């Protein structure tokens, strides 16, 4: 780096590491075992990238960013692939031996995904470690193995690689010398000295002879080498040694050809072709320096895989160019990952930011409760006139009517008090025709009254009350600003067939709190985390300046979905939040709800996906008509995609159902986007709740508060991670509150009847 004058730059580095490693990504490689006589302690089982980075950092005079670790076989394949795009196999036949090839992703069970291919490092040196080559191993192979650093391992490599072939030749010559078949001498003493001398000759020496076998000057070279080593070989000795070298090298070539044949056959089967055309990138001293070896390898491959046209391409620059190419790809992908991470970083709020959200929620709560500030407050803190939670004395039959969306439910709830309290419910769901939803109020209410009479009154004749729960989805033109209780009463009167007493109208959040309070007396907070988002809680009367009286408590419907409508959350809103808001039916309103409720999370995700696609990171850079469609990405798909049980293949199937032609890489990115958006939703919802429970604690002057929150809503119930993240956030942001969460089984039905029952009890007491 100094010589090239680049020592001051932080360059991406490709690391060729020619040993068996377990990899889960390009820049991570855990060494499985040393081979090729390496035995450095403290490295096996460690990530070699981390070890190298640590060493570079310790040196301290330059910086390097290791982007990719590749095996030398992979580097060879990539190097040759640069010159020949058909290259899909890489082989090393040198000191060690190994192979890699491009396998179909659908066949790799260890990696998620089913599209495209991935390079597999076979580590075929360990072939036979399970005993499958025992019938081919000789006494010399076994002797080599016993004397190695790793007995019982890398058995194929010990039969075929350059590191051990010379040793095989040596062991054969030693045995031949002992049996008097080589290097004849006149006395027993000279025979012994010759054997000892041959025994100590190095494997490198035999490799030198090995490469000369069958060449034109082979015999002459063989004699020169043996003479140089102090042996006086005869012509017959040289022929015998040359013959041994040829046999050993040809066995190696045949073994390599047979295993390569297995890979080529698999490639052919994967592609489903009658004849395979492919290129094998190859490197290593055995192949380069031994021409007879290369010819034998080619010939045997043709004989074993006759229905394949195989080109062998020698890597001129080893694995270095290939490693650099892999690094270049890794560098591009890393840059893409960084840009995606920067995009999503806006959604990842710090604890300090969440505490600020909690603080601002507290400010808006005070504004909503204050008489002077109520009219301008965004969080309205509406009094519900529910002064008490159930105390167990409620008793009777109550009718509940739940209006919402395109359906409404009519419920008969039978509450029995005493030692064995019971709540028995009968309900039926009816669709509301669009013409009724958009009709005048008297027609709408008369429609409701007809259904109440027709399907409930015939079974039960006496009723004590009815709750009307007015929610989203209705457009009755003359209802706004009118008393819906009175409208319903008029509708019932017009029917003239039964008489009902409308006792209470409450929000679904309050119904949820009351349902859970019936089971758990410490429940004083209600939360809806579903299509919409809202909360209620029992506030001290003295703090509710919009209602007369200072004694006791009253449930306040926060309507916290409008939190942020005054701009107090603008610093954490993203461009995608703004896009969703601008295209909504109520632009500029319910901004908090648009950041954390089920109705809008899918739209936030869709807008992010459009942006990432425009930047070329998703769906091959093509924005489909499906992706342009508002509302196509429903929140239920977020729940499915984020499920821990769902593999990327299934995520991709969901995206394809939506008409999004995605790859498995796309699926990974989409899953991350969904997770990030859901994370923020759960966290800011938790920050708001932390503000509420801390308010209750401070109201009562307590150092520590035990309280239960009743919760309902599909986002909370069905999303795989929302509830856990929400709980964790509340715990972290309100450490002085021990908050339990109780899921409401029927918040807007059972709770509705309970509120009616409490209202009847209170009215009886007052009279």
Topology readout:
Layout: E1 11-16, E2 21-25, E3 28-31, H1 48-59, E4 64-70, H2 72-83, E5 87-93, E6 97-104, E7 117-121, H3 139-146, H4 155-160, H5 162-178, H6 188-200, H7 203-212, H8 218-228, H9 235-271, E8 276-283, H10 285-289, H11 291-304, E9 308-314, H12 320-345, H13 351-369, E10 382-383, E11 396-404, E12 407-416, E13 422-431, H14 434-437, H15 441-457, E14 466-469, H16 484-495, E15 502-505, H17 508-519, E16 523-529, E17 533-540, E18 553-557, H18 575-582, H19 591-596, H20 598-614, H21 625-628, H22 635-641, H23 648-657, H24 664-699, E19 705-712, H25 714-718, H26 722-733, E20 737-743, H27 750-766
Parallel strand pairs: 1-4, 5-8, 8-9, 11-14, 14-15, 16-19, 19-20
Antiparallel strand pairs: 2-3, 5-6, 6-7, 10-18, 11-12, 12-13, 16-17, 17-18
Q: Would you write up a description of this structure?
A:
The protein is an alpha/beta fold and 767 residues long. The chain contains 27 helices and 20 strands. A six-stranded mixed sheet has the order 10-18-17-16-19-20, with helices on both faces. A five-stranded mixed sheet has the order 7-6-5-8-9, sandwiched between helices. β16 (523-529) and β17 form a beta hairpin. α7 runs antiparallel to α8. This is hexokinase. One of its GO terms (molecular function) is ATP binding.
